[in-house]
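Morning. Coffee machine broken again, so started the prediction first thing and wrote up yesterday's gels while waiting. Chain of 213 residues, entered below exactly as on the submission form.
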Amino acid sequence: MTEDFMERLIMDNPVSIATWLTLGDGNIALKGRQVNAFFQLTHRYENGDYVLMKKNLLEQITHVSVALRNRSYGQEWQLWTGCHPMFNKVRLNTYLNGHKVIYTHSIKLMTPLCLALLYQDDGRYSPEKSTISINKPTFSKTELEMLAKGIVDRFGIIFRVRRSCTLKDGSIGHELGLRYSDKDKFFSMIDPYIVPSMFYKVGKGGTSSEVVI
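Came back before lunch.
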């Protein structure tokens, strides 16, 4: 990643970034006798540049470790932070009874960088079908409707909630579907924060260059 790209990752509000990293692919844990919680995540080997991006963001909060793990299905990146009191606050605001939840406070914290992280974690773009979506089936329909309203209020971009899948318990999962006429506006807003291995999600064609961490 270029120096210019890295400069864009300077955070005004670490809590907002940690919140939306958690509501994406990450999670916050508090184990044993630990007083403070820590953040952790895994990503595919091909997304090493994305792991590096998240590492640089989280290092503005506390120290971060990254390792390449061998799994039965191939290699993956594992990232984890040191324990920090800020993660206690984020944990209280993103979990309820052990499950992630979206609160109005989290939506008020959302920035273009936060939305770019959420889209790179869970977004899909199908030029053939003219569809762009953020798939979050474990969140309730009500939570996603609240998130969609927050996005249009903050950024003027319209997402609609629609069915995406049937979950293991038989319930219906939902996703956010972008109004396709908002594609250029949406991609223009998040483009400064998209890493090369995720270019395919904004119609640029993906790259997966080697990343040294």
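Strands lie at 27-29, 38-44, 64-71, 74-81, 95-96, 99-100, 123-126, 131-135, 159-166, 172-178. Going to sketch it on the whiteboard this afternoon.
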